[in-house]
Amino acid sequence: MKHSFGYKFTNGMIYAVLSLIGLVTLLPFLYVIIISFTDPSEYLTKSLILIPEKWSFSSYRYILSTEMFIRSLGVSAFLAIVGSIISIMITSALSYSLSRRQFFGKKFFLLAILMTMLFNPGMIPNFLLVESMGLMDTIWSLILPAVTSAWYVFLMRNFYQELPEELEEAAKIDGSNDIGVFFKIMLPISLPAIAAFGLFFAVGFWNTYFNGVLYINSEELRPMQVVLQMMLIQASTNVADPSVAAMLQSEQMLPPETIKMAAVVVASLPIILVYPFLQKYFVKGMLVGSIKG
């Protein structure tokens, strides 16, 4: 089919604008990666670096050789894996229960969950609740307060409501109970939703910062984002000191900026690597609970 000049021109302009937007969005990420691999001596002598002449892994070696940062990576990995599994199980089980018509007290629990979306108790009540439960300075203080989301519960509830009831009836005729129906029938069917929401939970736990500041005092339990913030503050303080800046120039020590960029890359890389493997579930997962005409 032949297209008119106006059609081709419009398509060309759309592609050009989208390419420009994509390039502008991508440039900051490329700059972060380039600076993180730039040799310290070159970074200190040049004001702007687009493509470094000398590539170096010194910033990454420094970060990965820091015991505190390695330990914080382990804490964040534990939060992302264990926290996501617990969040998925609780959210799926709660959503499935609320989707059943025979569930006693369903309206009360739906109203209670809805209230948490409309009214946020605030930082101080949450802090007092965590403290009264004896979770202060424990890894569970970073998991249990963020274990589920009311919005995700409502979305998955709508998803389970759209499934035919004949599936549950057939499973019960074969001798399965409610728990067996949930684990053997409903969870495998809801894999797209679980994959999409599981990734969102994982990203949330991986980026845990505020709860880490509020509830964690022990150095060995600090998540990665809190340690990164401490490193950034320390680097900013050092670079503001003229004596430290002069020492960087004279002794060729690692510039704070390259350390920052390397830390950003190390913190972002695991989540970026996970996205492509779950991409095929995104479209189905994002349509969970949507209104169909």
TrEMBL record:
Note one Pfam family from the annotation.
Answer: BPD_transp_1
Q: Where is the ABC transmembrane type-1 domain?
A: 73-278
Q: Which GO terms describe its biological process?
A: transmembrane transport
UniProt entry keywords in alphabetical sequence: Cell membrane, Membrane, Transmembrane, Transmembrane helix, Transport
Entry's Gene Ontology cellular component terms: plasma membrane
In which compartments does the protein localize? Answer: Cell membrane
> What membrane topology term does the record carry?
Multi-pass membrane protein
According to the record, the segments passing through the membrane are 12-37, 68-96, 108-127, 139-160, 181-206, 259-278
Which superkingdom is the protein from? Bacteria
> Record's InterPro entries?
MetI-like, MetI-like_sf
Gene3D superfamilies in the record: MetI-like
Major localisation? membrane
Q: What does the sequence similarity comment in the record state about its family?
A: Belongs to the binding-protein-dependent transport system permease family.
Q: What is this protein called?
A: ABC transporter permease
Give the organism the record lists. Paenibacillus glucanolyticus
Task: Give the lineage.
Answer: Bacteria, Bacillati, Bacillota, Bacilli, Bacillales
